[in-house]
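re: ur msg from earlier - yeah i can do the flavin-adenine dinucleotide complex, just paste it... oh wait u already did. ok heres what im feeding in:
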Amino acid sequence: MTTKNTVCVIGAGPSGMMAAITAARCGASVVVLEKKRRPGMKLRITGKGRCNFTNACDKSVFIENVPGNGRFLHSALAALSPESLISFFEELGVRSVVERGGRVFPASGLSNEIVSALMLELQRCGVDLRLGWKVTSLSAGEHGGFRISSVNRPDTGCDCAVLATGGITYPQTGSTGDGYALLKAAGHRIVDPRPSLVPLHSDAPWIPRLQGLSLRNVNAALTVDGERVEEQFGEMLFTDAGLSGPIILTLSRAAVRSIDEGKRVWVSIDLKPALDKETLDERLVRDLAEWSRKSVKAVLTGALPRLLVRVFAERWAVDVDRRCAQVTRDERKRMVDLLKDFTVPISGYGALEEAVVTQGGVDVREIDPTSMESRLVKGLYVCGEVLDVDGYTGGFNLHIAFATGFVAGRSAALRVST
Ligand SMILES: Cc1cc2nc3c(=O)[nH]c(=O)nc-3n(C[C@H](O)[C@H](O)[C@H](O)COP(=O)(O)OP(=O)(O)OC[C@H]3O[C@@H](n4cnc5c(N)ncnc54)[C@H](O)[C@@H]3O)c2cc1C
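and the outut:
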């Protein structure tokens, strides 16, 4: 049996729910097919359960924070800006707060409030939300439109389809890359999906000894085959396997690609970014003279976090029990070099299960950015993380999902009404 709906949305994540609400508000009859038993599984765990759903910044700053095809978003951001998204949720009863770096969260601090608001609105708009429907194919319908097949369910017919199946990271939430296969079958090119915003691994033997060390106000530079390709300032963390924390996640996008290409990758940490080498050297001359009778360990303990002292001394190759007065000029210069360039060799990156977002996806040249309609298959719309668009942390990725979902839903409804 085939049922007839005007718009069928595949996937009930943030992009799919927004597309469905928007299409229904524009007058379309909408069905949503979601393979999980609950909608918005990934949305619930975003922002450590607090849901950083957008970023209160202007369009140019937003696009700067989307290294993966940010320019594709001009129309979507014009259609649904961060302010409009904040107002959208406010109208649904969700008040928000703006935090450090423009990050916007629900004031309750609960991502479930966002999911519940979306579900209530889907219901209010009369959207038919079907849970436990895993879509396996999308083909041309007998009388136009599409025929959508799902596992152990009757086929669904529709005039327009909106594909909102997400990426490939955190697959336990339902994002298992099904959309790539559906789009490939429809003739689309898929740019290799890889993890992004993911911890980096290092096989340096001293790494496990630094586990749990968090560094604030440091500069980390990504070096690929000897060339500095990107730098970030802020907070990072040592794990048992390597590096993590905000600035490392940001660097991971470029690092993952370079590792996959077999290039040699390092992260170079400037532990004293506020001081240039000359000033740092002058300061060390002063400190070593002042503490001349004390051990090198005492100076290092004053300059570095406790956990780093021994590893640093080993890499510096100076005995920590030596007296400061015995440190030679050459050793002092090497200490300056190591403080300014504490390199960590990178050997790999975390699994898909721990990556926040996917880089890669459907080639955006094949999608019209003003409508999110496929340029190859009329009546097929694509939105959210399945697109080859990805941003840094800070609310950008959820906003991309909501804004592209909004445009896709509006365009699909417009198409069926004309
Ligand atoms: C731990 C974590 C924290 C994050 N925190 C933030 C944050 O605070 N701020 C931010 O901006 N971004 C954050 N993100 C990223 C953000 O969650 C995603 O970019 C966003 O959820 C993408 O939305 P989407 O609707 O495109 O896809 P998804 O949220 O992945 O939703 C896709 C939906 O499609 C369904 N589906 C898939 N295949 C099928 C199929 N064959 N048939 C039917 N249904 C299907 C899935 O079950 C799923 O429900 C975080 C991600 C993770 C993993």
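cool cool. The mean pLDDT is 96. ping me if u need the other ligands too
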